[in-house]
Design goal:
Blueprint: H1 10-49, E1 69-76, E2 79-86, E3 95-100, H2 111-119, E4 122-127, H3 142-158, E5 166-171, H4 175-184, E6 189-193, H5 199-203, H6 210-213, H7 220-223, H8 230-235, E7 241-246, H9 255-261, E8 269-273, H10 285-297
Parallel strand pairs: 3-4, 3-5, 5-6, 6-7, 7-8
Antiparallel strand pairs: 1-2, 2-4
Length: 299
């Protein structure tokens, strides 16, 4: 026969009430903690996406080994982006490489990149997104990022470049911008360096520290204001796509590119670099040579 609450000894009755109170307290504490962590992440998500920005004074003078043109892009009433155009020493050039760089730093260290594309006879264009270098403003969602990316592409068209002469390269964070432009325009080709599948997928698969591993337990799909969906963009891209990714990448896991590969056209390629890590990946000699050869193959 089931024991009724009224049949309990008074001490047992008190003990059961305390257990229920403690249990309720723990559940409420965990729930409030979960809600608090979710609110904190929603309000601070930009610090996870736009990592390590380095600002520059508006009057900062770049120091490069070759001549360059500094171009200010006004993308909103109160937002101007800083961009650089390096002209190849071989003129007329074979085209222009437009790079969307990864998070961290700014565009003040472009000597090596400019030299690489100069050796191919290509001009080189790069810009800082909002909050980096001399670029003003901040982002509230990925739609603003897309508008800025398209503004950079439009600037090249206004400078006289034809779409067939524009090579798009997206590095890490910048991969989602480069793929978006490629999906909505008609450049020569698209190269992605260490790309994510999309930001929501990446948030569930971060492993480089114990703290970020906890993100997979939050409802990031609902909380993120950014997605930067490389997968969707690649599906809607008609130009040739080449991806370079290292198997030991702990920031943007290599499986991202394996999943992107499922959306490839027949001519698209995934170039795997065994043991390649995230930091400095684009500066590896084998990656640089692979990029150069990929550009030349369609030249």
């Amino acid at each position: 026969m089931d024991l009724l609450l009224s049949d309990l000894h008074p001490d047992q009755h008190i003990m059961k009430k305390w257990i229920m109170r403690i249990f309720s307290f723990l559940v409420i504490t965990l729930l409030l903690g979960y809600i608090g962590a979710s609110i904190w992440f929603y309000n601070h998500q930009e610090s996870f996406i736009f990592m390590n920005p380095v600002k520059l004074d508006a009057d900062y003078t770049y120091d490069f080994a070759t001549d360059y043109q500094e171009i200010n892009l006004k993308v909103a009433e109160d937002v101007t982006l800083s961009s650089l155009l390096f002209k190849s020493s071989i003129q007329p050039s074979s085209g222009v490489v437009f790079t969307f760089k990864g998070a961290g730093g700014n565009i003040a260290n472009q000597n090596e990149a400019a030299a690489v594309y100069d050796s191919l006879g290509f001009d080189y264009f790069v810009m800082d997104i909002r909050g980096y270098g001399k670029s003003e403003g901040a982002y509230a969602n990925d739609e603003e990022m897309y508008l800025d990316a398209m503004a950079g592409y439009q600037q090249l068209l206004e400078l006289g470049y034809e779409e067939k002469d524009i090579v798009l390269i997206g590095v890490s964070l910048g991969s989602g911008l480069a793929s978006y432009v490629a999906a909505n325009k008609d450049p020569r080709q698209l190269l992605l360096i260490s790309p994510y599948y999309n930001i929501k997928d990446l948030a569930k698969n971060l492993t480089f520290s114990q703290q970020v591993r906890l993100l997979k337990y939050l409802p990031t799909d609902l909380l993120l204001k950014y997605n930067l969906d490389n997968a969707s963009h690649i599906q809607n891209t008609s130009v040739p796509v080449t991806i370079f990714h290292g198997t030991a990448d702990r920031l943007i896991y290599y499986g991202s590119s394996l999943k992107l590969q499922k959306h490839f056209k027949a001519e698209d390629r995934l170039i795997t670099i065994e043991g390649g890590i995230h930091n400095g990946f684009g500066n590896r000699p084998d990656v640089i040579e692979g990029i150069k050869q990929t550009i030349l193959d369609l030249n």
